Amino acid sequence: MSHRRFAALLSIGLLTAHAATAAPADGAGLYREHCAACHGRDGQGGVGVPLALPAFLDSVDDKFLRETIRRGRPGRVMPAFGRLGAGEIDAIVRHMRGWSSRPAPPRDEARIAGDRARGARLYAAHCAACHGEHGEGGHGTGVTLSRPRRQPILAPGLNNPGFLAAATDTMIKTTLTRGRSGTPMRSFLEQGLRERDIDDVVAFVRGFADAPPPEATRVLETETPVIVRESAYDLDETVEKLKTAVKAANMRLIRVQYLDEGLVPEGKEDKRQVIVYSCDFPFLNEALKIDPRVGLFLPCRVTVVDDGKRVRVMSINPKRLSAIFNNAELNELCERMHQVYVNILEESVF
Amino acid sequence: MIGTRLRHLILAALALGAFAAPAGAEELMMARVDRAFPEAITQLQAVIRAHGYTVSRVQRVDVGLTASGYATAEYRVVFYGKPDEIHALSRSHPELIPYLPLMIVVMAENEETVLVSLNPTKLSQYFPDAPLGRQFARWEQDLRSVFRAVAEH
Predict the structure, then answer these.
(1) Are A149 and A286 in contact (CB under 8 A)?
(2) Substitution target from B59, B63, B93, B125 for chain A, most A beta carbons within 10 A
(3) Which of the residue ranges A177-186, A206-215, A267-276 would you say has the lowest mean pLDDT?
(4) A86 contacts in B (CB within 8 Å)?
(5) Residue B104, beta-bridge partner list
(6) Interface with A, mutate which of B5, B10, B28 (most A CBs under 10 A)
(7) Contact present, A302 and A242 (Cβ < 8 Å)
(8) If one looks up domain B4-152 in CATH, what number appears?
(9) Which band of pLDDT confidence, cut at 50, 70 and 90, is reported for residue A103?
(10) Contact residues on chain A for B117, CB-CB shorter than 8 A
(11) SS3 A296
(12) Is there a smaller number of Cβ atoms within 10 Å at the N or the C end of chain B?
């Protein structure tokens, strides 16, 4: 390649890259693509919290929104959108601002001085019931739509590193002072507290940053993506033992089918790959209340495979999967489910 | 003067810039459909078929929950795949079987419907293998196209 031709190609590449970055991003389109599934088409909420509440938009500055999109809330459902560029995030924020007639409040980085010990007592009395004793936040996801929830909105995790990095003391104080109309968050002034009390609570909440990382940020230790056990029996015997093991685990046997059933014409299925579906409905209901997306890996499913040399029993590994939901509340359930799978698999092969 | 190696490096960087994964390649893929559940799930199955896949089954999770006494809106799981791919992969990579066929959760949210799926490229982290990676990338492209078609219908 000649230097001239190379230089021309380089210029075209750089110009294309520049044009791509210089073109104004489509905030509405980006919101629809990345945010609407959880937060609703018009910000009314869903798996994610409602964003179009005037009381919310009027109390948070643009950097709070940008940092929230960029960092997410580790372990609290909202993922980090680290792949979005600054221009794209700005466009999403501009789109969200269109839901409010008021301009964004200016960002004020000033620290608010307060008595943390006093703030701790006030927090325990006025905040912990919704936000958790250690600021871990409410249970479940978003707002009540398709499934019954205990609260109309998920109380934010105040000890979450994503929240603490995005929120200023002024924003927290404003929220405590005004409350959030349309949510259970009530004005502290209306509850009879004074400005000094509010400053003490702000200082206490800011102090969460000095505490060890919250439980919400714990990711289960990664293991293999599947749980596999080799059976001492042939395929039919193993399937029968598996069905017995499922019932012994107090699960309801839903169906037994071939892996390719429904994919190939009836009678042409590979009869050496058998799936046993079962469900513990109280467990499923519990899991769906924590995160309605978790049905992706429920009800339980175990596959028995005979490759001609050996018979193996296998399932997904729930511990490996818990991180994809970015929901630490699922950790304990995933650990329980992992143990249930291990027990069932081992009972069916020995 | 620019050396050959540097030129190759710059060209490679430009190529990477052109083909980098789009923003939003998250671990879960989700889409909101501005239609009620019955219409949305029917449309989803039609679009899956139009992309060359077979819908093998629809698991009615909501029916099981309701029968067990739990309140829920419509909630189903659509299983789908290409028979030749499932057949080949289950033999060459039996460890993939617990993740096959592919699946999409379909849940009602009032008069709208939400679709959720594991991003197939996530499987590359579980099963690091170049040919498999290309397969997962194709599934991801198809799934994005399916979600877009259903959401924009």
Answers:
(1) no
(2) B59
(3) A206-215
(4) none
(5) B78
(6) B28
(7) yes
(8) 3.30.310.70
(9) very high
(10) 296
(11) helix
(12) N
Chain A residues touching B55 at Cβ < 8 A? 262
d(CA A50, CA A153): 8
Q: Which of A127-141, A177-191, B19-33, B131-145 is the least confident region?
A: B19-33
Q: Which pTM value belongs to this model?
A: 0.86
The 10s digit of each residue's pLDDT in A268-308 is 999 999 999 999 999 999 898 888 898 888 789 999 999 99
CA of A66 vs chain B CAs: smallest distance (Å): 15
Amino acid letter at B106? Answer: V
- What does the alpha-carbon distance between residue A317 and residue A314 come to, in Å, rounded to a whole number? 9
**Mean of pLDDT over chain A:** 89
Low-confidence ranges of chain B (pLDDT < 70): 1-25
Distance, CA of A139 to CA of A109 (rounded, Å): 30
What is the percent of chain A where pLDDT is above 70? Answer: 90
Question: Which stretches within chain A are classed as H helix?
Answer: 3-22, 27-34, 36-39, 54-57, 62-71, 86-97, 116-126, 128-131, 161-166, 169-178, 195-206, 235-248, 281-290, 318-321, 329-349
**CA–CA dist A201, A138 (Å, integer):** 18
What is the rounded distance in angstroms from the CA atom of residue A43 to the CA atom of residue A126? 28
Which residues of chain A lie closer than 8 angstroms to B59, CB-CB?
Answer: 277, 299
ipTM: 0.86
Assign A324 to helix, strand or coil: helix
Chain A residues with CB inside 8 Å of B75's CB? 146, 288, 292, 295
How many Å lie between the alpha carbon of A36 and the closest alpha carbon of chain B? 6
CB B111 within 8 A of CB B37: no
Do the chains contact at A9 and B11, CB–CB below 8 Å? yes
Residue bearing tokens 């001492």? A232
- Where along chain B do its domains lie? 4-152
User: B66 CA to chain A: closest CA distance, Å?
Assistant: 10
Closest-CA distance, A40 to chain B, in angstroms, reads 8
Is the separation of the CB atoms in A175 and A225 below 8 Å? no
- Between CA B121 and CA B22 the distance in angstroms is 13
Q: What is the pLDDT of residue A139?
A: 84
State which residue of chain A sits closest to B105, comparing Cα positions. A296
